[in-house]
Prior knowledge:
Layout: E1 2-5, H1 21-37, H2 44-60, H3 62-73, H4 77-102, E2 105-107, H5 111-115, E3 120-122, E4 130-133, H6 141-152, E5 157-160, H7 166-179, E6 188-189, H8 196-204, E7 211-213
Parallel strand pairs: 1-5, 1-6, 4-5, 4-7
Antiparallel strand pairs: 2-3
Amino acid sequence: MSTVSKPKMSDFQTAPTQVTTETLVQDLFNKQRANFATDVTKTYEWRVDQLNRLIRMLKDNYDRFTDASRRDFKTASQENVFEVSATIATSEFAKSQLKEWMRPVEAPLPKFLAASGHKGLVYREPYGVTLIICPFNGPLLLSLRPAVAALSAGNPCILKLSEALLATDQLLLELIPKYFEPEAERRGRWPGNSDESLEASVLFHNSHWKRRCGQGSHASGC
């Protein structure tokens, strides 16, 4: 799992050339796609390991995530606790069901094939790199629940963090490289237009994505 966010201008002041949004996104995508091409993500071990890492990240930093939610939303304390607890519970449930989800599913066959002893099975294969555009109105649950689904299905995922959740974004950018494998440490940053919907559009309409998860406006995709 990797993250994408927009930098401050100081991040680019020493750069010899300007790097476009498309270039940085493509670089991050290529790294994830190369990892997917090894077929490592198809295994139960990889999938459960990703879920364990996510659960450990949330549990180890429970208070920090609830505090980040409070600073981003300034809502009742129980709502901030719910954001973290519900995300952990979603991850734990996915882990408990993972072996069942990965089992081949028997498919109906024409009678003449079934009568001759043939059997049809559907093997659930991962699609590929998944883009998750995080919404502004749910700092963890609405952002990480799609990530749980993607990782459970064996799909590497890239998070496009919302510009509206500064505290939560900063925490995720800090912790994801610490808890996930090296290929997840690459965090894409780009000099973008002040209109976030334009940046989201560049990501959302990249034809390479195998699956896209977004909430809210269809025009912005986030």
